[in-house]
């Protein structure tokens, strides 16, 4: 192979690579359910997220509203064949904090996995309808943009 041909190939590769634009993501966060694991009375919810400007998570000092929580879940029980929102029956609502995350990419598009421990209990054990439940959930980024709402599939309690 001649030196001139090698330089042309290398220049062509660099020219092609410079035409590839970095991944563009919507600045409004997007989430998708991944898994729900029951661990005795507790459970773990897992989901993926993508955020176009990488402003996901709260710092430890972010405790005043509206930055006290950034993951909100609603609890449903299956009653007469339909899922009914039971949030008003809960003593403690399902609200959580995703810690501050930073994008390592220059395009600031941030994606990843989140695992949330739902403790001490993941369902209302006093309810006769808590044998089949589900959750819906959403997140807010630091600009208070609300994600889409994702749902677990029906969860049949052991």
Residues in β-strands, percent: 35-45%
Helical content band = 10-25%
Order of helices and strands: HEEEEEEEEE
**Structural class of the secondary elements?**
mainly beta
- Mean pLDDT, to the nearest integer, reads 85
Q: Which stretches are poorly predicted, pLDDT < 50 over at least 5 residues?
A: 1-20
Rounded to the nearest angstrom, the radius of gyration is 22 Å
Per DSSP E runs of 2 or more residues, the count of β-strands stands at 9
End-to-end separation in angstroms reads: 68 Å
If helices are DSSP runs of H or I spanning 4 or more residues, what is the number of helices?
Answer: 1
Shape: elongated
Largest sheet: 6 strands, antiparallel
Quaternary organisation of the protein chains = single chain
Protein described:
- The protein is mainly beta and 158 residues long.
- 11% of the residues lie in helices and 35% in strands.
- The protein has one helix at 3-19; strands at 30-39, 42-51, 71-79, 82-85, 95-96, 110-118, 132-139, 150-151, 155-156.
- Strands 3, 4, 5, 7, 8 and 9 form a six-stranded antiparallel β-sheet that branches. The chain has a three-stranded antiparallel β-sheet with strand order 1-2-6, with no helix packed on it.
- β1 and β2 form a beta hairpin.
- It is elongated and about 50 Å long.
- The model is unreliable at 1-20 (pLDDT under 50).
